[in-house]
Write a structure and sequence with these properties.
The protein has a five-stranded parallel β-sheet, with helices on both faces. The protein has eight helices and five strands, in the order βαβααβααβααβα. Bound molecules: thymidine-5'-phosphate. The site of thymidine-5'-phosphate has 12 residues, from helix 4.
Length: 203
Amino acid sequence: MSKKPVIVFEGIEGSGKTFHSQFLSNYLKKKKIPHIKLREPGGSRNSEIIRKLILNNQSNFNKNTDLLLYLASRSENINMLKKLYNKKIIIIDRFIDSTIAYQHYGLGVDLRLINKINSYLLGNFKINFTFLNTVSIKNMNKRLKKRKKLNRYDKFDVKFYKKVQQGFIKLSKNKKNYQIINSDLDIEHNKNLILTKINKLLK
Ligand code: TMP
């Protein structure tokens, strides 16, 4: 296992992935372990511009345009990621599984097309470990209600998020490099799970 792993946090809205990826980044900072953390869509300047365009409540792109925009935002990050690959720990808040879960399992876009463009963009860049954050739909709704501002992708119906979460779970099935973090459980328990795994990865 690489000592400078690529670690991805995935999950639907309100699943705690942003919280946990920030928690991990703070932990590494405290230990003075060099790393970078970015989110997708977003992360780099150009990718943040594309993020605004996709998630703007005034936008009404069709599902193929959305797919191409998410991939365009990835394309704007990938050169930087490749430069840092194996040199620094990389933490990513959403990555290729989000595209499969939302655009394929959620919206029905062709999986082969998504896989093809993702492999073209990623080349030899590989994810070492994924924390899949899950949440009950009840808790997801509670957490979304607390948000001051909702973006265009926060407003699908419950059925959609169920499909997306099922998609994420399918992607993690029988894979050694995935761990499910059930965010309906105690937060301290989950933080410990993450740190135990991270310490193993960095050993
Ligand atoms: P965020 O607010 O958690 O950063 O995520 C933005 C939204 O973008 C979220 O609803 C998931 C969605 N998304 C996709 O649909 N496809 C993708 O490839 C990515 C990276 C995110």
